[in-house]
Design brief:
Elements (H helix, E strand, L loop, with lengths): L1 H11 L3 E2 L6 E5 L3 H13 L5 E3 L10 E5 L6 H14 L2
Antiparallel strand pairs: 1-2, 2-4, 3-4
Length: 89
């Protein structure tokens, strides 16, 4: 349920993800520098995510990996989604 909620929220704010039900959610950013900057900004806001860039993923598939847990509350998820929305540009 949390994974579906977060995945939908990511799409609703205009970011790209891959369909699925797995709790590890890829947010495709497709730019190495943007991934690095977003990961750092999210960390400063108390959100721990993993940036995947070349050579881990092919150029053009740069991704932020988010791991959702059953212990995350809707408030946690909404906070994270709002921060993604703030920094996506």
């Amino acid at each position: 349920e949390n994974s579906e909620y977060f995945r939908k929220g990511i799409r609703d704010i205009g970011l790209e993800t891959i369909p699925g039900i797995h709790p590890i959610i890829p947010v495709l950013i497709r730019d190495t520098n943007k991934v690095k900057n977003m990961v750092l900004e999210l960390y400063k806001m108390g959100i721990l995510v993993t940036g995947l860039t070349t050579p881990v993923v092919p150029s053009g598939d740069e991704t932020i990996r988010v791991q959702i847990s059953a212990v995350h509350t809707k408030d946690d998820l909404d906070y994270s989604l709002n921060k993604f929305k703030e920094i996506k540009e």
